[in-house]
Write a structure and sequence with these properties.
The chain is α/β, with parallel strands linked by helices and about 250 residues long. It has a single domain, classed as Survival protein SurE-like phosphatase/nucleotidase (Stationary-phase Survival Protein Sure Homolog, Chain: A, 3-Layer(aba) Sandwich). Helix content is about 30%, strand content about 25%. A hairpin with a 5-residue loop joins strand 10 and strand 11. Helix 1 packs across helix 5 and helix 2 packs parallel to helix 4. About 45% of the residues are buried. The chain binds manganese (II) ion (MN). The site of manganese (II) ion (MN) has 6 residues, from strand 5. The site of manganese (II) ion has 6 residues, from strand 5.
């Protein structure tokens, strides 16, 4: 079993190391991760400059690019063998609802999926110093399950783990994405040279977070597993737009 790991928090992130440690028992783990925090990078590729790959003291490959660059580069050129599975994370913070659009963690897994490889994104719904080892155990169990009974086609799973000791986690729930309120507005401030600058505001709170959603499962202390797809076509509007445009 060949496992490719990536993340968006950077190759030095504790969540990545917890994931690498937890998955080591399942097979050969190769890490290809960004050289710095690229949270919020979404599915971007670097096209305006070359990418370099270096090795850390732990043997992790790190790249001066995005999470998507890392998986793309690993699968299409860097590795001698295709990975059997791509796992991204463990992200420092939840990736639920609309977060999945912006997340570099989800994007790294998406790149694996789009290249035809089963892929899983794992996020810890907690803080930087949270229960990463518990989330690592959850990820290892899931990867093991995926290995044992592999579905016919590639899959893309978005996993959020509540931030608590492993023994307290109340099982796993298969969920749909919830939705957040609109993000807070940008924060306007002044830099030390007197220029006006802006910070992108925090994500909004959960708006659609009822039973069946990722937000709800995690709030109840359960692991949320959401199967994702990448076809953005709005099928229900095909006829409407056809009639509207007379096409
Ligand atoms: Mn991140």
């Amino acid at each position: 079993m060949r496992i490719l790991l990536s993340n968006d928090d950077g190759y030095f992130a504790p969540g990545l190391q917890a994931l690498a440690d937890a998955l080591a028992q399942l097979g050969e783990v190769v890490v290809v991760a960004p050289e710095r925090d690229r949270s919020g990078a979404s599915n971007s590729l670097t096209l305006d400059r070359p990418l370099t790959v270096r090795r850390s003291h732990l043997g992790y490959h790190y790249v001066n690019g995005t999470p998507t660059d890392c998986v793309h580069l690993a699968v299409t050129g860097l590795l001698d063998h295709l990975p059997d599975i791509v796992v991204s994370g463990i992200n420092h913070g939840a990736n639920m609802g609309d977060d999945t659009i912006y997340s570099g963690t989800v994007a790294a897994a998406t790149e694996g999926f789009l290249l035809g490889i089963p892929s899983i994104a794992v996020s810890l719904a907690g803080r930087r110093d949270g229960n990463f080892s518990a989330a690592g155990r959850v990820a290892a169990q899931l990867v093991q399950r995926c290995i044992e009974s592999r579905p016919a086609g590639p899959f893309l799973l978005n996993v959020n783990v509540p931030d608590m000791p492993f023994e307290q986690i109340g099982g796993t729930e298969i969920t749909r994405l919830g939705k957040r309120h609109k993000a807070e507005g940008v924060v306007r401030t002044t830099n030390p040279r007197g220029d006006t600058v802006y910070w992108v505001g925090a994500a909004g709170d959960a708006a659609e977070a009822g039973p069946g959603t990722d937000f709800h499962a995690v709030a109840q202390g359960r692991v949320s597993v959401t199967p994702l797809q990448m076809d953005l076509t709005h099928f229900e509007q095909l006829d409407l737009v056809r009639a509207w445009l007379g096409a």
